[in-house]
Design a protein that fits this description.
With 253 residues, this protein is α/β, with parallel strands linked by helices. Helices cover 40% and strands 13% of the residues. It is built from eight helices and seven strands; from the N terminus they run H-E-H-E-H-E-E-H-E-E-H-E-H-H-H. Strands 3-2-1-4-5-7-6 form a seven-stranded mixed sheet, sandwiched between helices. The longest helix has 20 residues.
Length: 253
């Protein structure tokens, strides 16, 4: 009998669909990247999704976030994403956590429950903690590197963190993870050189360019909101989802 996953089943078979249905995946960050990851995972038949984000939809999200429309402004992102998931697959189980993930809030999550973890958050300290927590629980994780200030959706690659280049965030992560003894991390990253945003911030374009190049003055980057668009974060999110699905199917062969 036909159902919403019949076309996927033609590719992965009934056994593969059951593996996806049995999987539980945690997505940390339901924004431009994470929102598209969640959407693709739901449409692929993942049975249980844990959504972690304390943010609400705002007007400036409309240019790139799949959950953002005028009717969802002011609503929690995890709640909006949950409603979309259940409208796609009423049998899915969705756990929402209105939490800003940091090293201080990490103990609220038991990673041993997850078959896979997706890191789509922005803060370096949070990203590092996610990797450490996944490593301790022996749970696979994939991490999104920088998607802001980019215009070339074809520049994304999948690689181990220690084989990345160009991406400023990946450079910071390589250094920090090496210091913590992490030997590998699957990431999605872009080899496009970040664009210097045009805006009226007090920090000059020259200072921002120098900061991105040297990766030392993080205070400069924190003062600036990155530019973004509809097609770069979405591509990163869909690439992440595809990697998760392939790994889940391979893991249970």
């Amino acid at each position: 009998m036909l159902n919403q996953f019949s076309r996927t089943e033609l590719l992965v078979g009934a056994e593969g669909m059951q593996k996806l249905c049995n999987a539980r995946i945690a997505v940390f960050g339901i924004g431009g990247v994470g929102g598209y990851t969640v959407e693709a995972l739901a449409r692929s038949g993942i049975g249980t999704l844990d959504l972690i984000d304390d943010d609400k939809v705002c007007l400036t999200n409309l240019n790139r976030q799949i959950i953002a429309v005028h009717s969802t402004i002011g609503k929690y992102k995890v709640d909006v994403a949950r409603d979309r998931i259940l409208d796609i697959n009423p049998d899915a189980k969705v756990n929402c956590y209105k939490v800003f993930y940091t090293p201080e809030t990490a103990d609220q999550f038991d990673f041993s429950q997850y078959d896979y973890v997706v890191d789509a958050i922005d803060t370096v300290s949070g990203k590092i903690q996610l990797v450490l927590q996944a490593e301790a629980a022996k749970v696979p994780i994939i991490s999104s590197m920088g998607a802001g200030n980019k215009m070339d959706a074809t520049a994304f690659k999948i690689a181990d963190i220690y084989k990345t280049s160009v991406c400023p965030l990946a450079k910071v992560m390589r250094h920090e993870l090496k210091n913590r003894g992490i030997k590998a991390l699957k990431v999605v990253y872009s080899e496009e050189t970040p664009i210097i945003p045009f805006n009226d911030a007090k920090v000059s374009r020259e200072d921002t360019a120098r900061s991105l190049e040297e990766n030392t003055d993080t205070s400069v980057r924190k003062k600036r909101i990155p530019g973004s668009n509809a097609f770069v974060p979405s591509v990163a999110g869909l690439i992440i989802a595809s990697e998760v699905i392939k790994d889940i199917l391979d893991e249970f062969k």
